[in-house]
Write a sequence for this structure.
């Protein structure tokens, strides 16, 4: 491994989303890849990257069926009915129940997502609203995303969905819901397995010089526009710079990770069956691609969006769309329960697949922290109390596993997020703003 | 009531909100229970004096997906195949056109635009016919500076919609020189400056910022006007003729501008323009992802959504261009254009074997509200919805403002029972709850006027074996069925003020500020005088001060907050 200079991305992107600071970085440092926080990558013998993943589904849960029975560590608790699919991985996940989102609930579903993932309420612009703060995946990516080919990866399952990975107001990272397109993007022509030669192609350097010219144009234009547009150009500029860096990395040796290989390609298309999208098959194809993207260290931050808030997906065998059922199905809502079982089975599948990758003395999941959550607790009433939170993975020995932590007195969900950012190496004093702000983490989930 | 829970904004948030936005938020705080809701579009018709004209601040506008594709096809050749996916468009305040002036380009978007640029550049250079339009010199292996310069200058003006500055040209000539050396081929090397032009913010964003004059804070320049007019009226980039007109100073002078606008409205591309507007306003782009349970709606297949969109857009084209008729006829006309699929849904013989043919729809449907596009889109995957349909009529067609449903209410409709068999009966039980009724009274009763159409838009007389009652009242006009509802909408003054407001927002890419109220009023007066013909409205907007002028862009955050 070459001796590399330290390279650290600032929290600029995150701050600019929230505070509107207009600073632009000019001339990012040369390519200093694959370093850990201390600039001693690989020196301590553990060349293992630490990852963060967000796993999201829309339309909440049914808390009585979702919540575990008992609390504590290991055998002291058992999984609720809705989480039965997690049984094989119960000792590598933790559940945090009884917390609450404190950021208000003016817009059912979207207020919940914004609250749990950013610790801040939605911001209204005219008759529309948007997130005012970056979501946790982007908060973390702005710190560690510079270490890999891709800053972060946004994956979808529901067709035509939007996801909710935000950099700041009106700045959403689009999700890739097509398995074929995701595969091509990550494992297409430019992918190299460990041991492959760097790509030698004069076009790569030319593409970089073109991007450089594009950056110059961006700077010229920036001088002429108002403040709001400067922020938009800054974002474009930074993303152009990031692509320049990525192209340069193709000319270096690919990371040497034992488990890395090109996964099997998914199907070109997954046409609906009886008007029902093939959620399970699409999800599993996406998980396979994600699994290798992580094993090959193409990215260390991902978000996987199973369905959007308020989605009305027709699940197999169901009489109406998911969202409508959560409101209109009478009684104990057996149809909603069946949908929840399906979603949780897939969530558990994702965890199992990441657990199945060997890495060093442990597994890929051991070196990952996953936050799995949704847009409200009880969907029928859009409650924000007793918020559903599943954590998975060990975060390189930092995150407790096999725990059910039952919060008393409705602790702020932002405490969990603050702790996760710290486990990922960020040094934040707080997470969220106003009522959603947490200045203390949740020590119960720390090892 | 429920919205008292709305959070207070920290100072950090407040400056993001513009005053107009704050006013609307506080509007949202008003509950529906006041009985009368103020239709914001009515500010256009009220007697109270409007503040003096002041233009809005300019904003970069990102090319929409459709505009990007149309521009490539027009400038570089129709045969170029584009990647299926680019940065997605996002609606803001109900319009993709407004979203385009708020959003930026994501990291994934930059990647996609780069892929697209090289794919386009490669196809273009490989196609001798397409190439000959912009490249007249012999292409050898050695670097030809004057050839590169001419190419960049000419194609650059078409793509950036303005002449390039010397410095900008020089930069791309250097890129070409380097590429020629590295690839040992001048022809291949020319892909790189072209790709650079296509990835530059000057192409992907429309930078229409205006310049100060003696009479106005800022007036859009001739080249900026060429771009504004072309994207508004044609939904594509200005062509060479329009750019030449800009170079000759013809798009800032009143007399010559009017002539150009008239000519542009005669051009077939104006049909693309009006289609794009109605697809945006009526959210017809959502029809690509139409989800219906085919076990309930047996006509449902992948063809339905796109077919339904085409029907509506052909109808709009016919009304606006073939007939140059009154906008309000959109809600009452019995003329439509259907293919075999739609004919089957409407239970009429297909007028043609392939494609779309003109038909007179049966008397049980009339106008836009009898079309599958609106009926299917504003429904659930497995049932009709009075609320979604009513909300669409109130919000999209009449520009009413209805606050979002409170998160903490049980919004479920009562299930089908002995006393509540039809949707109307279930809705009525629902409306007995005053906290629901306050807002739902504004939507559900209107939506029930369309209950004779199921969740896909098929006509029906019965719901759970009970005869459907589709009667109701809109703005004091009683109706017994959907045709009557269509007439009531056509008769409502809100329908025309709403179109003025929405088309103005679409044209300018922003939500009007208080300084533009006076413009909207003048536009509506013109519209009325011209017999509510949409073509006349397009023309008035293109000639209005609001479309031609801007205020000085704010340089700081503080100013941003104060504007």
């Amino acid at each position: 491994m070459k001796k590399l200079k330290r390279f650290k991305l600032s929290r600029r992107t995150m701050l600019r989303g929230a505070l509107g600071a207009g600073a632009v970085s000019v001339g990012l440092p040369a390519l200093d890849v694959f370093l850990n926080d201390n600039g001693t990558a690989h020196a301590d013998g553990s060349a293992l990257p630490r990852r963060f993943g967000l796993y999201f589904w829309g339309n909440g849960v049914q808390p009585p069926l979702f919540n575990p029975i008992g609390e504590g560590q290991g055998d002291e608790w058992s999984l609720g009915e809705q989480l039965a699919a997690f049984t094989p991985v119960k000792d590598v996940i933790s559940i945090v129940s009884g917390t609450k989102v404190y950021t208000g609930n003016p817009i059912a579903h979207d207020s919940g997502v914004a609250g749990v993932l950013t610790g801040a309420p939605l911001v209204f612009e005219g008759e529309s609203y948007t997130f005012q703060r970056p979501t946790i995946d982007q908060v973390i990516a702005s710190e560690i995303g510079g270490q890999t080919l891709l800053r972060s990866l946004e994956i979808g399952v529901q067709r035509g969905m939007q996801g909710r990975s935000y950099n700041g107001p009106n700045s959403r990272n689009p999700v890739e819901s097509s398995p074929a397109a995701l595969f091509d993007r990550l494992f297409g022509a430019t992918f190299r397995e460990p041991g492959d030669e760097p790509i030698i192609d004069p076009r790569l350097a030319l593409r970089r010089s073109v991007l450089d010219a594009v950056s110059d144009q961006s700077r010229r234009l920036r001088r002429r526009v108002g403040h709001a547009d400067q922020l938009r150009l800054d974002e474009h500029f930074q993303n152009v710079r990031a692509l320049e860096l990525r192209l340069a990395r193709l000319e270096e040796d690919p990371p040497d990770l034992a488990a890395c290989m090109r996964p099997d390609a998914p199907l070109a298309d997954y046409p609906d069956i009886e008007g029902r999208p093939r959620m399970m098959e699409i999800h599993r194809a996406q998980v396979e691609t994600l699994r290798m993207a992580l094993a090959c260290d193409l990215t260390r931050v991902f978000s996987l969006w199973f369905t959007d808030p308020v989605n009305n997906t027709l699940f197999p065998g169901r009489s109406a769309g998911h969202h409508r059922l959560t409101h209109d199905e009478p009684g104990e809502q057996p149809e909603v329960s069946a949908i929840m079982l399906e979603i949780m089975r897939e969530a558990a599948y994702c965890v199992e697949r990441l657990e199945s990758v060997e890495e060093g003395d442990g597994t890929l999941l051991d070196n990952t922290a996953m936050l799995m959550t949704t847009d409200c607790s009880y969907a029928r009433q859009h409650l924000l109390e007793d918020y559903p939170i599943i954590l998975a993975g060990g975060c390189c020995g930092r995150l407790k596993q096999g725990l059910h932590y039952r919060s008393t007195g409705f602790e702020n969900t932002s405490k969990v997020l603050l702790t996760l950012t710290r486990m990922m190496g960020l040094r934040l004093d707080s997470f969220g703003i106003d009522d959603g702000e947490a200045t203390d983490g949740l020590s119960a989930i720390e090892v | 009531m429920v919205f008292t829970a709305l959070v207070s904004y920290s100072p950090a948030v407040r400056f993001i909100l513009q005053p107009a936005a704050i006013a609307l938020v506080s509007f949202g705080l008003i509950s529906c229970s006041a009985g009368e809701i103020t239709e914001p579009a009515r500010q256009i018709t009220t007697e109270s004096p409007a503040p003096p004209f002041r233009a809005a601040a300019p904003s970069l506008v990102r090319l929409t997906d459709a505009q990007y594709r149309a521009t490539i096809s027009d400038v570089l050749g129709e045969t170029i195949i584009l990647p299926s996916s680019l940065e997605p468009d996002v609606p803001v305040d109900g319009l993709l056109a407004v979203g385009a002036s708020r959003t930026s380009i994501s990291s994934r978007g930059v990647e996609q635009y780069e892929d697209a640029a090289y794919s386009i550049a490669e196809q273009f250079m490989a196609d001798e016919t397409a190439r000959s339009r912009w490249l007249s010199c012999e292409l050898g292996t050695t670097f030809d500076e004057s050839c590169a310069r001419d190419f960049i200058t000419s194609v650059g003006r078409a793509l950036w919609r303005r002449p390039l500055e010397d410095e900008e040209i020089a930069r791309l000539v250097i890129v070409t020189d380097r590429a020629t050396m590295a690839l040992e081929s001048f022809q291949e090397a020319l892909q790189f400056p072209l790709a650079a032009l296509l990835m530059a913010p000057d192409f992907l964003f429309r930078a229409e910022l205006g310049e100060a004059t003696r009479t106005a804070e800022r007036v859009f320049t001739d080249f900026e006007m060429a771009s504004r007019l072309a994207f508004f009226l044609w939904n594509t980039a200005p062509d060479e003729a329009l750019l030449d007109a800009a170079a000759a100073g013809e798009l800032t002078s009143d007399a010559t501008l009017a002539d150009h606008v008239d000519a542009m409205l005669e051009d077939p591309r104006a049909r693309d323009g009006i289609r794009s507007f109605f697809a945006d306003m009526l959210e017809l782009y959502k029809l690509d992802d139409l989800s219906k349970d085919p076990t309930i709606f047996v006509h449902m297949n992948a063809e339905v959504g796109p077919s339904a969109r085409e029907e509506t857009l052909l109808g709009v084209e016919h009304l606006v261009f073939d007939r140059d008729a009154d906008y309000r006829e959109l809600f009452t006309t019995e003329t439509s254009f259907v293919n075999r699929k739609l004919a089957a849904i409407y239970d009429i013989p297909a007028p043609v074997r392939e494609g779309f043919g003109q038909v007179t729809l049966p008397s049980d449907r009339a106008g836009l509200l009898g079309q599958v596009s609106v009926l299917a889109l504003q429904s659930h995957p497995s049932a009709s919805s009075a609320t979604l349909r009513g909300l669409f009529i109130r919000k999209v067609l009449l520009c009413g403002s209805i606050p979002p449903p409170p998160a903490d209410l049980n919004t479920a409709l009562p299930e089908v029972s002995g006393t509540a068999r039809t949707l109307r009966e279930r809705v009525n039980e629902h409306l007995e709850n005053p906290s629901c009724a306050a807002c739902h009274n504004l939507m559900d009763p209107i939506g029930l006027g369309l209950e004779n159409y199921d969740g896909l838009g098929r006509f029906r007389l019965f719901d759970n074996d009970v005869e459907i009652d589709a009667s109701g009242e809109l703005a004091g006009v009683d109706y017994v069925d959907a045709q009557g509802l269509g007439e009531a909408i056509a008769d409502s003054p809100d329908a025309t003020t709403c179109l003025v407001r929405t088309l103005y927002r679409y044209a300018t890419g922003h939500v009007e500020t208080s300084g533009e109220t006076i413009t909207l009023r003048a536009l509506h007066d013109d519209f009325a005088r011209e017999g509510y013909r949409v073509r006349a409205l397009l023309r008035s907007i293109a000639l209005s001060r609001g479309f031609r002028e801007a205020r000085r862009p704010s340089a700081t955050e503080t100013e941003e907050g104060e504007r």
Residues 163 and 305 of chain A are 6 Å apart (CA to CA). Chain A has one domain: 48-188+272-445. The longest strand of chain A covers residues 51-56.
